[in-house]
Give the backbone structure.
Amino acid sequence: MTLSSSQGRFNTDGKSVFLLADTVWSALGDATEDEWAFYLRRRSRQGFNAALVSVLPILHDRSLGDSNLAPFDEDAVTNRAWRFNGRFFELLRRRLDMAREAGIVCGLVLLWVNYVEGTWGATRTPGFVLPEEARAEYLSTLSDVVQDGECLLIVSGDAGFTASTEVESYRRFAESVHETWPHSLVAFHSAPTAVLPPELEKLADALIFQSGHHGESPGLARELAARYRAMAGDRPVMNAEPAYEGHRIGGGVGRFGRTTVRRGIWESVVGGASAGVAYGAHGLWGWHRTGEDFTSVHFSGTPLDWREALFLPGSDDAAMCRTIAEQEGICRFAVRPEDLTVVDGAWGAADVSVGVDPEARTAAVYLPHGGPVTLRARDTVTVRRVVDLNAGKEVPASCTTIAENTWVVDPPPDVSEALLLLGLW
């Protein structure tokens, strides 16, 4: 199975797809072969077609148990000796083969922030910066097991891009990744507040971002979707890390539930990150087992056992997003108020997301609180489809002209969260 892109879309084996990714950063080192097989069956049956994993362990943010297999000897690294474990990379090859057989492509994060000089992650875990000579060996070892074109190669993980040494380090590494896998899509995963530097942006074949797990920026998914769509050109854009279901609200009170996670997904897709989206379940991403110590309880909260997290209901909402996106041909929405905008001025209007694809003459409106909503458009608005996102079913809606180029669209009163799919003629 190959992964490529064209005209703002992801393609697998040349066929346009909406990339629906599940987050299992720690699965390579922590899942057994049988667990990985069970996981793949579950997510494949739901409709997921991608999985995001980190090749190297996320040293500051993990569950501490009996790791199945590690890519390097951590004790040796503390003595400045990087020894890569060939058995781990053989396992990586098997895991990729198993994923391919399940119809799932992998996004591999190659260098999490802990391994790069001058980063906040390196400060958290001193002694684990990967030196240049070890990087060359690492890429060489990876290239023996990862085929060109089969994975989304994500150069960075949680990067802040705040120091010139960090940016330069990732730039050199990204260039090496391009040279090693010239036909693979390359991307960067960053912290929610990070700004992708121009010298890295030009090396990205796909633009991905993280809206993250903080509570103080509820509109960040929409903001980042619009920002990355504006710079993307023909590259695909996706939110690779909305809030995880069951995750604590970043060091605060409460956790992200199904409804909040679903909102982040649809705000991203409608707002411009329309080529795909990721879903995460707290406990599954770190492959947590009940009784293990988790290093980030202070920020993330105690995780569920991975077997419980795998069945959280928000994953079905994410799967429905892919179904709708592919049925409707969604891939390149953008915020275009000159074509379609909300004109209500009362409470809740600012929470509505509007995306337009001018070439397809279609639009989507995400109503996190239900309707009615008043819209002004350059062209005539027709309602093609309305989805009650709580119930997961289509519902009728009225569409009334109230003035020139102005319409009120109103789903049924018992619909508290809706997606409007519109034609613009």
Q: What stands out?
A: DSSP finds 13 helices and 22 strands in the chain.
